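Preliminary data (for renewal application), zinc ion complex.
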Amino acid sequence: MRATIMPKAHDVRIDNVPDAAIKDPTDAVIRITRACICGSDLWPYNGGPNVEGQRMGHEAIGVVEDVGRDVRTVKRGDVVIMPFANSDGNCMFCEEGLQTACVHVGFFGNGGPLDGAQAEALRIPFADGTLYPLNVGEEDGLMPALLTLSDVMGTGHHAAVTARVRRGGTVAVVGDGAVGLCGVIAAKRLGAEQIIIMGRHEQRIALAKEFGATDVVSERGEEGMQRVRELTRGFGVQSVLECVGTEQAMDTSMGIVRAGGAVGRVGVPHYEAIKGAQQMFYRNVIVAGGPAPTRAYIDELLPDVMEGRIEPGRVFDRTVDLDGVPDGYRAMNEREALKVLIRP
Ligand SMILES: [Zn+2]
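Predicted structure:
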């Protein structure tokens, strides 16, 4: 079968690899019908660290092709959402809804222990606890939106939940990538009254407004922080959704959160320490977040997707086949595409 490999920075290839196959009795194999490229795939693309033969992709919808003898909740032919990490579904953390801390957690693609989803097929460990079966056909028109429940929409929602977004609250979203835009959807859905999007890409800002952003701050650094304070009577916001992961994005987040507020981090951190420990203490600021337990959020978000109340599928602005994946990385990296959907 064919799969996406990234042996080193700026080198994305579609190679032949051994077919995905059942190894353990709790495994399933899915044929990938939809996958996509994530902003976090661009970190290794831009310099690593990369590992030999690294398989890429961690977001997918697929059709179950084979199951191990202990799999109970999915069967051959089921259309399923694959969250970006596997989980056993029955440990203490899974029961608390924190599947990304599962004692058997494994992350798909990107040099993780599991193979990648930008491929024709994929082995899924702990299929019962990981895969989420859907009651739709594999060509359903809602597929792009359903695909976002694998990662971006669940991750934007996690940013909002960990930033304690509340009804009538004030929110700032740092980052206008697909996760940031889904963060806007999530904040609106949770009832925030003021949603400030920080970004400067014209089309993304336009989409953010359609998703519910009430204010736009395109300035960066100190100037951007000043603008947010101006928009919030000088105090800053109650909830900051940090959807980038750079040091600058974190500095900005800490600079615009008001006393008693919370920062929900979902951008993979590319910084060593969070600055401002003294300030954080005296202002009672909470910093939370981490890898989203997207598996836990599907129950809550799926009805809104199925009934069209939220439209996270609109973050996809390009579709490619496997051969188009290398150019898809280039297009996302150059911000020519917001998010690339893959039909292997
Ligand atoms: Zn678990």
